Amino acid sequence: MATIISGKELSAKMKAEMARKVATFPEKYGRVPHLVVILVGEDPASQSYVKGKAKASEVVGIKNTTILRPASITQDELLSLIDSLNADDSVDGILVQLPLPAHIDEARIIEAIAKEKDVDGFHPLNVAALWMKQPCIVACTPKGIIRMLDEAGVEISGKKAVVIGRSQIVGLPVAKLLLDRNATVTICHSRTKDLPSVTRDAEILVVAIGRPRFVTADMVSEGTVVIDVGVNRDPETGKLCGDVDYDAVEPKASVITPVPGGVGPMTITCLMENTIECFEKKMGK
Ligand code: NAP
């Protein structure tokens, strides 16, 4: 039986701690941190993520403003909205919910956000700082994954870690964070040959590919720590499921994260942490 790391429980604990801290801010700094989330269009998944961010902000005591814009907004209009938020001293964090409509260049938008307010940690200067081991805002999902490993008491140093997926928002940064914690890291992707032989060698396996139940029991060795980042709809039941075949893999794993209730809640909780971090930095802490 694997130890199940509940991202939901850990998130609740972290949010309660943050709420206690934020409650001291009005006296200390005259106000609480302010996160602005921009949602373009009406994608239901994005709407639900944005709602989750507003709810978490409320729990933690962070001021949250959600700005809704139609999918027809032009790139220039969105850029000028970001410019005004960059210049607004009462705003500590800016997040543009992705994906954006096809006529908008996501990279241009992310680059336009002031790096000090880039709570997602996606700005090229934050990404560069991460790879250069300089102080930076770390992307929320990878940050949450490391936090979960720490919470479960998983020793990372010296371990063979395999990351499946090389996206900018999950695979690459989590691989770098594992490397910084002295794991020996292998990054796999769609062109990796004989993936099961690589994953069977993993002591820590992080899966971020976006394919329902892709990692089967035969791909995992006994005692592996399995972190499932995937959020998918099961094609048969329509329910949420991860990239790992949880029921089959859990008995072999030593530690595993569920979907839902695993990495997902941690991502939002780390967004709260990043917002507080940006705020405290601005306030000169
Ligand atoms: P992405 O940008 O689509 O990247 C997927 C990666 O998986 C790519 O590197 C791709 O390889 C690799 N891949 C695809 N099929 C593969 C295969 N058959 N074998 C090996 N590698 C394969 O995805 P993402 O944004 O990283 O997201 C991954 C999953 O995590 C999705 O389900 C997403 O919804 C979820 N997610 C969850 C959270 C959360 O908070 N829980 C946050 C972010 C993402 P190539 O590079 O070769 O194409």
Description:
With about 280 residues, the protein is an alpha/beta fold. The chain folds into 2 domains: about 30-120, 3-Layer(aba) Sandwich (Rossmann fold), CATH 3.40.50.10860; about 140-265, Rossmann fold (3-Layer(aba) Sandwich), CATH 3.40.50. The chain has helices at about 5-20, 25-30, 45-60, 75-85, 105-110, 125-130, 140-150, 170-180, 195-200, 245-250, 265-280, and strands at about 5, 35-40, 65-70, 95, 160-165, 185-190, 205, 225-230, 230-235, 240, 255. It has a 6-stranded parallel beta sheet. A 3-stranded parallel beta sheet has the order 3-2-4, with helices on both faces. Helix 7 (about 140-150) crosses helix 8 (about 170-180) and helix 7 packs across helix 11 (about 265-280). The longest helix is centred in the C-terminal third of the chain and has 20 residues, at about 265-280. The site of NADP nicotinamide-adenine-dinucleotide phosphate (NAP) has 25 residues, from helix 11.
What is shown here, in short?
With 285 residues, this protein is α/β, with parallel strands linked by helices. The chain contains 11 helices and 11 strands. The chain has helices spanning 7-22, 25-29, 44-60, 75-87, 106-112, 124-131, 140-151, 171-180, 195-199, 246-249, 263-282, and strands at residues 3-4, 34-40, 63-69, 93-96, 160-164, 184-188, 204-207, 225-228, 232-233, 240-241, 255-256.
